[in-house]
Structure formats: structure tokens, C-alpha cells
Amino acid sequence: MNDLYLLNFITLESNMNINHEFDLKNQISPKILSPEISSDWEEIVTLRDSKYVSVVDQIESQIADLIKADHADLQFTKEELKTLVDEFFEKNDKERYGNWVFFPWKSSLVHILPEKEFIKVRTLRNNFKIAPSEQNELSTKKIGIIGLSVGQSVALAMSLERSFGEIRLADFDILELSNLNRLKAGVTSLGIEKSVIAAREISEIDPYLKISLFREGINEENVENFILENGKLDLLIDECDSLDIKFLLREKAKFFRVPVIMETSDR
Description:
This protein is of the alpha/beta class. Helix content is 43%, strand content 15%.
């Protein structure tokens, strides 16, 4: 485990009463563990055996969905589908199939399909409005969102439809009680950065999506990195409040030929 995960895990195992608030505020990304990697498998076993880690293993249900997706022209009875799932795991080790994902802020370990199969099943019900070829195209897109009050809803909606492959989120602000009229969050998240809350929500929907955070917000020093780092943005979504930053974003986006959209805030 890296230091962040290890510190949290040791805290959980040794003394549940220890205050690890600092850790919780800085736990941003889940850890995807592959049973094919020996060190990852050891970590999976350790986490599964911990009485402080909640384990979610619904891999049989996911395989059933995958079988139905692969045979969309057929209708299976419950018995037929169960037989096919059993046959699948006669050929594949159930515990070592797919990946296990550890969410440290929830102390939860979840067993999921491999990335390609996960994406296929998760986007299956979008197919009547987003064709598979369009979904493949969207998976190559890089989206940037600045301002994560209203912007959080935009990020979550796009994540649900998997309208991107990579998302960059920028906001320096923390969640306050007065934000709860427009953010999908609860009082347990008060004091946590809005960008961290959004990143966690997205990764719980789809751990395979790539997320980058600009936790200090956007300024003159980092705006070009936000637009260009690891590949130029395909779309910039402006939901920030600062007028000077709005001007800065448009100047840079125009220079680098990146489209900008904005939903105007109240007042």
C-alpha cells in the first residue's frame, strides 16, 4: 500500500478512536487492485480479512449482466442465466476475476469487472441515445470544470453517461452548510473541499475514469496546465464566480482554441 492507504488502514486496525480527520480530507482516489499482481492480491486478502473494512462482492450479478449484454438478442430465464454464470466461473477463478477497488474514505472494498467489460455493462442502457461508436469517441475526450457548486452536478451528470475519459476539476473552496442547497453532499462532508467531494462521487460511480484535481482553484500560474497538461482539453465548462477568472479562462481558451460553455449564476 502507498503511505496514504497504509496510514488509514493502520489507523483502522489499531484504534478506531484515533482522530484521522486529516487523512480523510485528503483521501481523493480509490485504489484499483489487480489479483494478477501478487502484492495487490496480498493487499486484497488483508483488506477482506479486516473487521473494519466493508466488502462488496457482487461479481456474479455483474457477470450475469455481462452475459445479457453479450447476447442482447436472447431472453434468459433466471435458471438459464444462473447456469451460464456458474459455467463462467468454472473457467475463471471467481475471487481473482476482474479487479478489487478500495475506497479509503468509506473503508470499503468492492469487486468489479475488468475495465473493458465494466464500461460495456455500465453504459449499456445509454445505447439508445448514445451509440457504442459514440461512446468510444466520448471516452477519448478531456473535460475541464471550474467551480464545483453548480459544476458538481455537471460533472456527475457527465460521469453517469460516461461523456468523457478524463475530467479535470478546479475549486479551492470547502463545503459549507449554505452550499447544501445546490451540492449533492451531506453534513458529514462539511469542511471537505468541493473538488474532493466531486472526485469521490465520480470514482464511486466509475473507478476507471481518470480524474485530476486543481485543489487551489484556477489562477494565472496554473491555468495553462489546466487546459494543456497531459493533452489539451476538448471542452472547458465555466461555473466559477470570479469575474477576473472568467475573463482569464476565455482569453486562454480562445488562444488554445478550446470551446467554453457556461450556465450563468444567479445575479
